[in-house]
Amino acid sequence: MGNITIYGIRNCNSMKKAFIFLETHNLHYEFVDFKKTPPDSWLLTNLINMRGKEAFINTKGTTYKKLKESGIQNISEIDEKMIIENPSIVKRPLIVVVENNKILHISIGHQEMEQLLCN
């Protein structure tokens, strides 16, 4: 299947559920905490190309609302730099499966994670 990496914020409730799911299913994974290591350009470019920003930008969270208050009108105006500076804008959990430095699968949210990892 490749190497599983889960991206997010450790204390987030969605992430806590994801950790329990992964551990219950004995799935080996690497965790990247966006608070300590924000998403890099390689990851963001692949996410945008494979899924589009609309799929992984959390428009319901406070980070997006703050960006809107600062003048952002819609998701298309959010660039990589803004995401890197505001990593909590990314929906969680974000699961990326990589093999030979190539992304094979991306899942965003708990339901997609279960579908990807249980099949």
The spatial strand order of the largest sheet comes to 2-1-3-4
So what's the CATH class? Alpha Beta
Mean pLDDT: 94
Number of strands: 4
Output the structural class.
Answer: alpha+beta
CATH topology: Glutaredoxin
The number of helical segments is 6
**Helix proportion:** 40-55%
- How would a crystallographer describe the biggest sheet? 4 strands, mixed
H-E string: EHEHHHHEEH
Q: Segments where pLDDT lies below 50 for 5+ residues?
A: none
Our count of domains comes out at: 1
Net shape: globular
CATH architecture: 3-Layer(aba) Sandwich
Distance between the termini: 10 Å
Radius of gyration (Å): 14 Å
Percentage of β-strand residues: 15-25%
CATH superfamily: Glutaredoxin
Protein name: Spx/MgsR family transcriptional regulator
Family: Belongs to the ArsC family.
Account of the protein in words:
This protein is of the alpha+beta class and 119 residues long. It has one domain: Glutaredoxin (3-Layer(aba) Sandwich). Helix content is 42%, strand content 19%. It has helices at residues 13-24, 41-51, 53-56, 62-69, 80-85, 110-118, and strands spanning 3-8, 30-33, 94-99, 102-108. A four-stranded mixed beta sheet has the order 2-1-3-4. A hairpin with a 2-residue loop joins strand 3 and strand 4. The longest helix has 12 residues, at 13-24.
Structural features:
6 helices; alpha+beta; Glutaredoxin; 19% strand; 4 strands; 119 residues; four-stranded mixed beta sheet
Short description:
By secondary structure, the chain is α+β, with helices and mostly antiparallel strands. 42% of the residues lie in helices and 19% in strands.
